[in-house]
Here is the input.
Amino acid sequence: MRYFLLLTAVLVTPALVSAAEGSSTPATYISADKVTAGFGKGGFLARTDEYNVQTSRRVKPGNPEVHLKDTEIMYIVNGSATLVTGGALVDGKTTRPEQMVGTSVNGGTSQKISKGDVIVVPAGTPHWFQEVNGTVDYYTVKVHSSK
Here is the structure.
């Protein structure tokens, strides 16, 4: 639960700064039904110029990727996997603005992750679900940098 509070702090901080500056940004409420349904298909729960929040589901390994300007915060809700972070992206190709996808990672750090874990992947850091044990459900918060 304390990890979820970390995610909440990331979402609330821009609103607090905005409130301190005198503007009013409405809060975003997402019902439990919508969140639960989101894990069935994955997708965005909230999306702004500063961040996005999404539900994600993995049933198999994916391709390694690098978000050049987004710090990604993952909270594992269910399941387990091996996540590789760091190192060098192999055969990286730009697939979207500010994002690259590759075929593997050289020299990264492998970490077993499971329910309750939080992973923070800084912008520009390769990351890869190298192995997935069954199904992994997780929240992803991407904080966009203007750098």
Q: What stands out?
A: The mean pLDDT is 87. The longest helix spans residues 2-20. The chain has two helices and eleven strands.
